[in-house]
Amino acid sequence: MQNKAKTTTSQLTKLFVSLFVAILVLVNIAFLVISSGYIYYSAKSQSEQLITAVEENLEPQYDWSALLDAYLAKQDDDAIILTTPQGRTYYSEDAHETFKDINHKRHYQNFVVSHKHIYFLAREGHHGYRIHVALNVDELFNLITWLLLTMLGINLVAILISILLIRRFAHKWSRPIQTMNAEIQDIRKNKTPERKVTIPDNPLEIRNLAQSFNNLLSFQNNALKREQQFVSDASHELKTPIAAIRGHVNLIKRRGQSNPEIISTSLDYIDSESKKMQLIVNELLTLGRIDQNNDDVTPIDLVKIVSDVVNEVQTVYPQKIISNLPEQLLFPIKPTDFRNIAHNLVENAAKYSPADSEINVVLKKQADKLLFQVADHGIGISQENREKIFKRFYREDKSHSSKVGGYGLGLAIVKAEVDKYHGQITVEDNTPQGTIFSVYLPKEK
Fold first, then answer.
1. Overall average pLDDT of the 229-253 stretch
2. Does the bond joining 176 to the residue before it have cis omega, within 30 degrees of 0?
3. How far apart are CA 362 and CA 347, in angstroms?
4. Which residues pair with 365 in a beta bridge?
5. Taking 70 as the threshold, does the pLDDT of residue 150 lie above it?
6. Is the CATH number 1.10.3880.10 carried by domain 204-288?
7. The CATH number, out of the four listed (1.10.10, 3.30.450, 3.40.190, 2.40.128), of the domain defined by the range 8-142
8. Locate the Histidine kinase domain: which residues (predicted)?
9. Got the DSSP string for 122-164?
10. How far apart are CA 304 and CA 325, in angstroms?
11. CA nearest 376: which of 418, 340, 345?
């Protein structure tokens, strides 16, 4: 049978009340032990003083029948028995009856209970004399009993008050959790994943939990957006090539047998359009796979990545690429992320630059940032379009762009990677013409 789930308030209340009761029990036990010790040593001290007083005055000529009562306190029921070396025994008032009754009772160490009275017994021998003392310790026991009952009453009141106070404080401590749960349920019911839970100031554990949940919620929202964006972009951009491919397939089916010459032309067109589809899908997948988690990155040498990218682009495009790179530059970033930035910026510069122009690539540390810069002498970018170029599928010069490969996703990939590392990308005019792209990445995330 499954146990019924308990609230944090009830669990905290039960825990702290149990601890409080356990502490009270230990305190009461300690009080009993200390009180018992106090009664024992107090009675022992009184008996020793009484015996010492008798021993100091032991003389054979004394009539101890009258003297023994003088050594006793005014309290009733104290008793002394003195036995001389000659074997004669003297009793204080009522001592004979008291010791006769005590001797028939069960002893507990030096204590014995008789007729609702408690006595402390002590015996001592001195030069042939034997002294027996029975001290009534009722007052001590009554005092300790009264104190114990008072403590138990105070304990009971303290427990009742503690239940109310601890429950109140437990409810206050658990309120941030209840608030988080209500906000999470509200987010789920209202289908508003953009909302976040409130982060309390205290306690620290709940604060960290709320922050972690918000980070997880943000990660899931970004993943959902990337998925939705991928579906939207793919459906939008793949419609045209798919329609063209389907058109040529249908053309081959209808007229291929009667006009065989159209098969070769259609297949070339289908091959071209399928390659375009492959390129679009690859770039969309690159955008969709950009993970915002960069907590586990380690420093890598960026010089080698830039050199490899420059060599790759140089083998495909005719422009002269001039690199200004240090011997080594270590920076904490994932290799694929920085390669996406470098490759897309350098290839983009080559696509939109004259064949006989130069492209300058710079990599260096600047103050507390990393600077990666690509400058070309191409067609340039107008001021009003410098924010738009980082949008997906945006092409500034439609007429010129139709002659250039690509689908407007390169700079979108660069912007996504730069944002991932909390960096900045700027666009400036080059002299006498062209564009300078500058990427700034902070050393600390």
1. 72
2. no
3. 15
4. 370
5. yes
6. no
7. 3.30.450
8. 233-445
9. EEEEETTEEEEEEEE-HHHHHHHHHHHHHHHHHHHHHHHHHHH
10. 10
11. 345
